[in-house]
Amino acid sequence: MKACFLPIFWVPLLALTMFFAVGLHGAEDAMHSEHMHQVHSELEFLVEMIPRHQEAVDSANQILTITARQEMRDFAKAVVDVQAEEIAMMRKWIEQWYPGPARQPAYQPMMRDLEGLSAEEADIVFLEDMIKHHRAAVRMAQDFLDKNLAEHDEVKTVAREIVATQTLEIEKMREWLEQWRGEAALALMIHKPEGIEAKQKYVLFLHPKHEAFECVRCHHTSEGADINQGCKDAGCHDMFVIETPEQRREIRYFEKAYHDLCIGCHRELRRQEKTTGPVDCKGCHIQE
Hints:
Helix content is 49%, strand content 5%. By secondary structure, the protein is mainly alpha-helical. It has a four-stranded antiparallel β-sheet with strand order 1-2-3-4, with no helix packed on it. It is elongated. The two termini are 29 Å apart.
């Protein structure tokens, strides 16, 4: 069996957890790590906090164009308003107190691009990244305060506000993330590589605790293979998860995926009399 050009079936509850999280709750790349720059002066704090704030503003502006949730729009608007104002203040302070050649920040981006994601996907990705983004900012501001590096009361006040405000926002985002991940479990989407046609675009998934890769329904039957035969049993595939949205669009994404995971598992459990659950696709899915 060829192991390429396979449509991708994705259950957002676990798929979002596995594929989208920063490091996707697995190995993290440098862009998505919780980068907390250790500062050693007031000037360095200002230089490093400005691009951090700017990335938050840019990402919040992007989610404003995508999200369908009013609470997310309100939150993103608040991020833009507060952090844009703080950026302006910090730039002014650098000009006033630290004239001279511009310092280059060492900041590493933490927020992923939301382009191409659905409103539900974008909300989850934004929250996952912004929680880590906020957490790193809080740790950096607290470290700055603990080291007593502030030379001006205005900067100390901003650092304290960052710690207080963003700590509260982290808790609110965690609540939303837990709630909305649960809601996302009710929908199953089929993602396909560029240029590949799929007969179905969406199905309703009613099993919030499972992930299903049901490519076997089309691929094995169309090739005349026994639907009970699993790709893994044939020696072709092992589970292989790629983590970033860009990598998910690659045609080789599920080259090593065990596509009849759900059917194979259910039928084996039924054989062992451990479940009475469905053993075919139509038992779980309703085509829209």
